[in-house]
């Protein structure tokens, strides 16, 4: 079951400048940053709020590490902006299989490693009314016992 908006992914040309915009304009601070070579991104997670399922919601600012990455290609075509939306679930394996069974293309055979050791997969934007959609199970147990 999808239980929250885990994050909104925003593509940018200069991660440091974009982080500074979000800090100076809204007061959002970097909660975590990393380079994910497999995804071809340098990223910063800005934590917006906790949620009642024990997870949290973030903005994920993404700068490509190479031009032929998903974000690099998208930026070259569209410029900066919202790149994807990510829904949180306690069971990315089960939920992505159920969605695949409905005829939506799931991009990975098995979930891959995402930010903060989460497990992630993506649904093809052409099967989701133009929205690149990510499913995320965070590394920390995200289901509170209530
Ligand atoms: N949102 C909506 N539509 C998108 C899109 C996006 N982010 N990215 C591509 N598309 C559309 C394109 O506009 C294009 O449409 P048209 O044919 O109508 O022009 C079509 O999808 C194909 O796009 P493309 O530029 O040829 O790109 P590819 O097919 O090579 O790749 C995709 C598209 C979705 C398979 C690829 O971006 C992908 O694998 N994404 C998942 C991984 C990812 O995004 N990683 C970065 C984030 C990591 C993280 O969140 O941790
Ligand atoms: Co993401």
TrEMBL record:
DNA damage in keyword set: no
Broad enzyme group: isomerase
Gene Ontology MF terms: metal ion binding; methylmalonyl-CoA epimerase activity
Enzyme Commission number, as recorded: 5.1.99.1
UniProt entry keywords in alphabetical sequence: Isomerase, Metal-binding
InterPro entries: Glyas_Bleomycin-R_OHBP_Dase, MeMalonyl-CoA_epimerase, MMCE/EMCE_epimerase, VOC_core
Residues covered by the VOC domain: 4-138
Keyword Oxidoreductase part of the UniProt annotation: no
GO BP terms in the entry: L-methylmalonyl-CoA metabolic process
NCBIfam families: metmalonyl_epim
PANTHER family: METHYLMALONYL-COA EPIMERASE (PTHR43048), METHYLMALONYL-COA EPIMERASE, MITOCHONDRIAL (PTHR43048:SF3)
Family under the similarity heading: Belongs to the methylmalonyl-CoA epimerase family.
Name used for this protein in its record: Methylmalonyl-CoA epimerase
Lineage: Bacteria, Bacillati, Actinomycetota, Actinomycetes, Kitasatosporales
